[in-house]
Amino acid sequence: MSGGTFLQAKNTFLPENHMDNLMKPLTISGLNNHKIKTPIYFLGADTISGEKNDTLKLIEPQKEEFRIPNRLAKTQFDFLINSSVSYLNFDHFKKNDAKKMFFQAWLKEKEIQRLNIETDSLRKTYSNASAEKKEEIAAMILKAEEKLIRFGQEIPELYEAAREKEDLYWKSSASEEITAFQEKIRLYQDSIRQITEMQSGPKANVSDTIVFYKSAPKTEVTIPEATGGIFYKIQIGAYKGKIPESANRLIKKLSLIRKVENYVDDKGVKIFTTGNLRIYNEAVIMQNQVKQEGIKNAIIAAYQNGKRITVSEARKLNNEL
């Protein structure tokens, strides 16, 4: 069983020596262990008097700004706060604790990707291992899967908590500030588009992009056409008529951490998909992740220029057989 990609806190702090911490390898446990120290009492110069008993002054530690490591600071994503506001990088966050929660969730997504690759490798090794080694490998796989399940539960909660905190900020903001921020995002998107157009070839799908949606009715969208290539998507549902409530809940849950698209085929069946991958093996990894996220019947679907074709035909055209 594999886990999902999906990519904390007010009153959470970085360790006292922040610069030393940035020099250390970035780990999930390190972020989760940020705790505030017990308040420190200082005998300051302003408290000393000629009286018999000196006065102890309680100095509450100031809240440090949570800083994203330089090597990750310019990471691009699409984090939907509400119908008017979206964030495209870490600098767009207004609340320090919300940024930290989002970053922790994002890091756990990266760890899930690593664990998926690791468990796939362990399963291949297991099939050819000796009897005494199989028990050891099985224990390693089980440990990794337990972590995948835990992260799969924690990530949506962190994203939702971060979104709620940022949404509260914008609800109390003046309309002028919202308009100015929207213009800032528009200019940012234009600059990214210009850079992309200057580069050779079409922009590939970026796996680091996180699209976070507040549960809301989805509008009908069509499968985007791929220019001169094959694309694989993960089909998470196909329904004619009313969508079962249990399926609807699963799709809404998945839409919190993935971009979910839907379209109606020529038979009137409403198809829900996620992902947009050029390589079949990457689609297999995402399929396993989506299954781990609760869509047990997820399948790989292939498209050529927006038209549905069989997976075997797609792999043949893509020279993947």
Mean pLDDT: 76
Q: Give the oligomer, counting copies of the same chain as homo and different chains as hetero.
A: single chain
Record field, number of beta strands:
10
User: How many helices?
Assistant: 8
Coarse structural class: alpha+beta
Strand line-up in the sheet with most strands: 7-8-6-9-10
Shape category: globular
Low-confidence runs: 1-26, 31-55, 203-228
Which short descriptors sum up this protein?
321 residues; alpha+beta; Alpha-Beta Plaits; 5-stranded antiparallel beta sheet; disordered N terminus
Describe this structure in words.
With 321 residues, this protein is of the alpha+beta class. Among the domains are: 65-171; 216-317, 2-Layer Sandwich (Alpha-Beta Plaits). It contains 8 helices and 10 strands. The protein has helices at 18-23, 28-32, 96-128, 131-171, 175-198, 245-254, 280-292, 311-317, and strands spanning 40-42, 57-59, 78-80, 86-87, 211-212, 230-239, 260-264, 270-277, 299-304, 307-309. A 5-stranded antiparallel β-sheet has the order 7-8-6-9-10. Strands 4-3-5 form a 3-stranded mixed β-sheet, with no helix packed on it. Mean pLDDT is 76; it is low at 1-26, 31-55 and 203-228.
